[in-house]
Amino acid sequence: MRLEYFQMIDRVVSLDGDAIVVESRVPEASPVFEGHFPGHPLVPGVLLVETMAQASGWLILGRNNFARMPFLMTVKEAKFRSFVGPDAPLDVSARISHEGSGYTVTEARLTSGGKRIAEAEILLRTMDFPNPELEAAMRATAARIGLPGYAA
Amino acid sequence: MAAETTPTFDRVADIIAENSEVARDSITPDSHVTEDLGIDSLDFLDIVFAIDKAFGIKVPVEKWTQEVNAGEKPADHYFVMKNLATRIDELVAAKAG
Question: Which enzyme class, named as a word (chain A) (predicted)?
Answer without folding.
Answer: lyase
